[in-house]
Task: inverse folding
């Protein structure tokens, strides 16, 4: 039961909740009425190793007993080690830690503006971004987001942003002009409905950016940290960006964001040019190390690829069984969506009532984002719930 104090003391920027979650373990959540749910939201692609993984819990608890925060006035050993670990996974370069995906994308925007002071980039200031993308709700990240539903009420936003359709290389070619300092895209658009950037498109973007002296930047906030079956979503295309934003799955539920900048640009940020009070704290970095440890020790990147195929095949089968309700399956790894032929709210609600939590996305889509360590039998359980609910909805629709 939702406390009446929820509405009394919290701002109304979120829809009224229908569940009060109090406990989690693995792929399961329980509400205040002790109802159990199979969690295929992962806190919107955050709890990549599930809820309360014992290795994560032990490491975070141990860190809390020694040092939680000290600020970036001092060197933090866990932060240095995490930066080294991430650059090993991404490529030669340097890291800056923050607290969220929006902050990480703000960092990329500020990086692009700083890079424009380079002699080869002088006079450039515009950032070219994909339509239907989502990069966060701060004013800078929101300016890089084309959708009017997110922008409404907050304009005028920052200028200097242009938009072109994802996977339309000709449109990007036309708009990437002498004033363009950078291109910023998601390898898979999450909030937009799980639309994947094709490999040839990303490869073509890299070529365009090199030819036109523009930076290539990726937002891997939702598609990163193993979720797509690669450590970062863009890596499947074999391209080499200049900067990458990370967050969500990196902390396993503890807030942490980060951005990586390639070795060529490693000195662009000077003392005083950017900062954060909480970013890269000992606690946040301990949580991130625990996530990476579990992903490596349990082989979860490969598991996401293999189990993602199981889930995708099952969802594809359902689109064949219910063509009047479902259109197509999109995505890769354990970042998948089913597009519906009508508003998905009824299906999401019915799935919840039957013990399966999923999350909506743009274009009448519902996202399936289970933890990377989800078991095949749990995927089969989720598919069975979904099939039963779709059968019920189809029967109701035919009456």
Result:
């Amino acid at each position: 039961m939702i406390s009446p104090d929820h509405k009394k003391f919290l701002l109304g920027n979120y829809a009224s909740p229908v569940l009060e979650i109090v406990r989690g373990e693995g792929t399961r959540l329980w509400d205040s009425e002790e109802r159990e749910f199979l969690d295929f939201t992962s806190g919107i692609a955050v709890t990549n190793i599930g809820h309360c993984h014992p290795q994560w819990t032990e490491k975070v608890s141990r860190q809390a007993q020694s040092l939680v925060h000290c600020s970036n006035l001092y060197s933090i050993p866990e932060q240095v080690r995490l930066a080294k670990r991430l650059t090993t996974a991404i490529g030669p370069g340097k890291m800056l830690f923050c607290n969220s995906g929006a902050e990480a994308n703000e960092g990329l925007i500020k990086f692009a503006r700083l890079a424009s002071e380079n002699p080869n980039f002088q006079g450039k200031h515009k950032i070219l971004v994909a339509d239907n993308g989502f990069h966060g709700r701060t004013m800078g990240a929101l300016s890089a987001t084309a959708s009017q539903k997110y922008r409404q009420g907050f304009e005028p936003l920052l200028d200097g942003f242009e938009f072109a359709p994802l996977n339309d290389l000709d449109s990007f070619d036309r708009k990437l002009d002498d004033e363009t300092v950078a291109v910023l895209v998601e390898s898979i658009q999450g909030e937009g409905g799980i639309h994947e950037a094709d490999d040839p498109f990303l490869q073509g973007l890299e070529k365009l950016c090199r030819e036109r002296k523009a930076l290539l930047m990726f937002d891997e906030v939702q598609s990163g940290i193993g979720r797509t079956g690669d450590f970062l979503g863009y890596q499947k295309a074999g391209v080499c960006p200049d900067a990458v934003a990370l967050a969500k799955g990196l902390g396993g539920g503890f807030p942490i964001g980060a951005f990586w900048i390639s070795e060529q640009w490693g000195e662009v940020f000077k003392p005083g040019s950017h900062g954060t009070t909480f970013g890269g704290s000992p606690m946040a970095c301990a949580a991130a190390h625990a996530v990476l440890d579990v992903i490596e020790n349990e082989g979860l990147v490969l598991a996401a690829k293999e189990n993602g195929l199981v889930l995708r095949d099952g969802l594809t089968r359902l689109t064949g069984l219910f063509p009047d309700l479902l259109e197509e399956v999109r995505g890769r790894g354990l970042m998948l969506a089913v597009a519906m032929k009508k508003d998905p709210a009824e299906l999401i609600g019915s799935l919840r009532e039957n013990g399966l939590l999923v999350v909506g996305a743009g274009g009448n889509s519902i996202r399936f984002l289970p933890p990377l360590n989800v078991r095949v039998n749990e995927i089969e359980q989720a598919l069975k719930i979904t099939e039963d609910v779709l059968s019920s909805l189809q029967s109701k629709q035919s009456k």
Remarks:
- The first strand starts at residue 21 and ends at 25.
- The longest helix spans residues 376-398.
- Residues 4-53+299-398 form a domain with the Aspartate Aminotransferase, domain 1 fold (CATH 3.90.1150.10).
